[in-house]
């Protein structure tokens, strides 16, 4: 008789009682708590309206990047408008030209996962799934909506046709109902450290892979939901997990492959996954602090120059550089770049730049001149 080979994480006799070395996580958890403390402290320096704008920007980043991880692209103005419709009391939704039904549905998931503190339920997961696939199709394929898959051979594959590589074989459909029941019990009642808990929940849900499609996005919404239970200072957390994951997308899929494959992870130990995921939490908070620093610089800049008689073109260019930061606006401001951003003539661009210099909004970059003259924001 041929011996059964256990290759996937759910085939291990101890599944889903994941094992890990908690002592290896303590220093990283302390780091995360420290960064979280800084974020909470910084948030108290802003007005309620400013915090709301930071929350909208963070949610927009989360929505865009959780989709990008799966290869789906949303326009930022569409997603941001969808969040503003629901969260910004001053937003004129009747005049909005950007939000789409798809971006509205995506925003609904993230608002619910962050604000709704009710226990996680099967109906709620199905509701999120319905939001993702209102058309009943995933690209060319018709899929089950708001109910579990019926395919017992659900494989995660990559590669060109004829050269596919199987990364994972999901839990059989006969196991899904019981597995999800245990999963929801864990999410709602476990007293594990919140960061460890959310990382385990992420891994567990993608291991079950209960839906035909959308499992990754829903697993990240679950992560948001669990972390939102720990939000006390602001309505929404001020950091985006999906942005940090998308910045290391190769690492994300790599650590998932290594953790869920028992040929590689012979000891059924998920410590490496937890370390990677906790580092993602830390990176997300550090990125949030950097973004808030940019916001502070932007606010100070406009406090200094908002009284100047700037035209819409100049404001557009200045805001673009402020959003990126001087250090990220490669090569500084040139006449050519100004024309590219504003779509105006060279003569008009030269006049605009000359006025910005006169007002003190920009300054010439040291070492540039003549035809290669470049400028940067004057933030001093």
Class by helix and strand content? mainly alpha
Percent range of helical residues: 55-70%
Which geometry do the CA atoms define? elongated
CATH architecture of the largest domain: Orthogonal Bundle
Structural description of this entry:
The protein is mainly alpha-helical and 380 residues long. It folds into 2 domains: 9-294, Fic-like fold (Orthogonal Bundle); 308-377, Arc Repressor Mutant, subunit A (Orthogonal Bundle), CATH 1.10.10. It contains 14 helices and 6 strands. Helix 2 (48-68) crosses helix 4 (101-115), helix 6 (173-189) packs antiparallel against helix 7 and helix 9 crosses helix 11. The N and C termini lie far apart (78 Å). The model has no long low-confidence stretch (mean pLDDT 92).
Helices and strands, with pairings:
Blueprint (H helix, E strand, L loop, with lengths): L25 H18 L4 H21 L7 H12 L13 H15 L6 H11 L4 E2 L2 E2 L12 E4 L6 E5 L3 H17 L4 H15 L6 H14 L12 H7 L1 H12 L10 H35 L6 H13 L10 H8 L3 H14 L2 E3 L10 E3 L3
Quick summary:
By secondary structure, the chain is mainly α. 56% of the residues lie in helices and 5% in strands. The protein contains 14 helices and 6 strands.
Q: Keywords for this structure?
A:
single chain, 380 residues, mainly alpha, Fic-like fold, Arc Repressor Mutant, subunit A, two-stranded antiparallel ribbon, 5% strand
